Hints:
Blueprint: E1 2-11, E2 16-26, E3 31-35, H1 42-49, E4 57-62, E5 65-66, H2 75-80, E6 82-85, H3 97-107, H4 112-125, H5 141-154, E7 159-163, H6 171-186, E8 190-194, H7 198-204, E9 205-212, E10 215-223
Parallel strand pairs: 3-8, 3-9, 6-7, 7-8
Antiparallel strand pairs: 1-2, 1-4, 4-5, 9-10
Helix pairs in contact: 3-4, 3-5, 4-5, 5-6
Amino acid sequence: MVELKNVDVFYKESGVDALRDVNIRINDGEFVFIVGDSGAGKSTLLKLLTGEHLPTKGRVFVNGYNIAKLKKSKMPKFRRSIGMVFQDFRLIPGMTVFENVAFVLRVVDKPKRFIRQRVPYVLNLVKLADRGKSYPSQLSGGERQRVGIARAFATDPGLIIADEPTGNIDPRLSYEIVELLMDINRCGTTVIMVTHEHDLVQYFGGRIINLKKGKVVFDDFIAGRSSASTSGEGEK
Ligand code: ADP
C-alpha cells in the first residue's frame, strides 16, 4: 500500500513548493497513472515513494514502511520491494538481455537454480523468450523497455514504479508497453506509471491522478477508449 498524508515538499534551493498538501492512497493491486505538466511535482512524488527524498511535512508510507522513520540499514530491503522502470531503460550495455535480468537476482542473492528458471519465465512474460542472448544495442527501443519491465518484475516486487516508460520509444509501441504493465498488474503487482502522454491515458482509462503545481487536482477513475474496465483490470 502507498499512502501520502498531508505531504508538502519544499525545495529550499529553489524556493519552490513542489508538493502541497498531497493526500493519496493507492491500495495493493491497483494500476494508477500519474499525469501532470512538466514541473507539476511528478518526479518529486516518485522520489518520496522510493525514499530518495523526505517530505518537508506530512507522512509517506510505502509497502508497510514509514519513509521518514526508515533506518539506513533497512533501506536496501525497502528498495527491493519496489521494481523501477525508467524512461531511458538503464540496461547494462555489456550484458546480454538474460544477464541484465539475472543481475538483479544475483544482487539479492537468489540461488543459481532459481535464476536459471526465473529469467526465462520473465523474458517469456514480456515476449522476449528468444532474445536472451542479444545485447541491448541489438534491440529496438520497445524491446529494450520490455527488458526493463522484465528486470523490474524479476524480483517479484509488490510495487512497480514506471517513470515515463514510453517516453523514449515509438509511439505505436507505447500501447504494448502499457499492456505489459497491465499484464503484470493482473499478476497482483501494484503499478504506478508516470506519463505525460494524454493519448495513452485516455485510451486505457482507469485511475488517474493529475498533479498541477504541486497539488492533486484530479484523482478518480475514467473510462478508457479501449474496452478496459475502469478499474484497469478488464480485458482490452
Ligand atoms: P515534474 O517531474 O512533474 O516535472 P518535479 O517534481 O521535477 O516536476 O519539479 C517540481 C518543482 O520542483 C519544479 O518547480 C522544479 O523546478 C522544482 N524542483 C525539483 N527538483 C528540485 C531540486 N532538487 N531542487 C530545487 N528545486 C527542485
